[in-house]
């Protein structure tokens, strides 16, 4: 969510769901949801849709205003809670609790990825509608399928080359713990790629 080439895509993905709900605000637990909230606000601004963005702290500030929610809100506002990755759903439920303490009406929870470790069940079990664009299983299956397409026996991650004049040039990293995300644009070929 903090990658320039996907920030706009993710914002648009969420916005296409949120804009038809007629809500007053989009909110999420800091810090994972912060980029999503900002990306959605950018898309709403493009369409001149008045939407507030709310950032929810895990705990209220211990100084100053002692606020747990930052943003322009008032009682009775309808909100969508957004999240990057849902595992058990506990941070989402904590965000909902903070929102409802301020008399905000939670309409729906939308996540980018559901890790399928009980989050959906926990959120829906509390009576909230939940939607995830992808499951972790789907991402792994897509990655494995795409990786097989390059017919490379090395188990690793394809990383776009940064310092090259050749478009669509890749190197293979066997470090699966790399913090650099591999992002493929729709229609972008997986071949050719270069090995380092």
TL;DR?
This protein has 196 residues and is an alpha/beta fold. It has helices at residues 4-18, 34-46, 90-101, 119-125, 136-149, and strands spanning 25-29, 52-56, 69-70, 78-86, 105-114, 130-135, 157-160, 170-173. The chain is globular and about 50 Å long.
Using brief descriptors, characterize the structure shown.
8 strands; two-stranded antiparallel sheet; alpha/beta; 23% strand; 5 helices; globular; 196 residues
Strands, helices and their partners?
Elements: H1 4-18, E1 25-29, H2 34-46, E2 52-56, E3 69-70, E4 78-86, H3 90-101, E5 105-114, H4 119-125, E6 130-135, H5 136-149, E7 157-160, E8 170-173
Parallel strand pairs: 1-2, 1-4, 4-5, 5-6
Antiparallel strand pairs: 2-3, 7-8
Task: Describe, in plain words, how this protein is organized in 3D.
The protein is α/β, with parallel strands linked by helices and 196 residues long. It is built from 5 helices and 8 strands. The protein has helices spanning 4-18, 34-46, 90-101, 119-125, 136-149, and strands spanning 25-29, 52-56, 69-70, 78-86, 105-114, 130-135, 157-160, 170-173. It has a 6-stranded mixed sheet with strand order 3-2-1-4-5-6, with helices on both faces. A two-stranded antiparallel sheet has the order 7-8. The two termini are 27 Å apart.
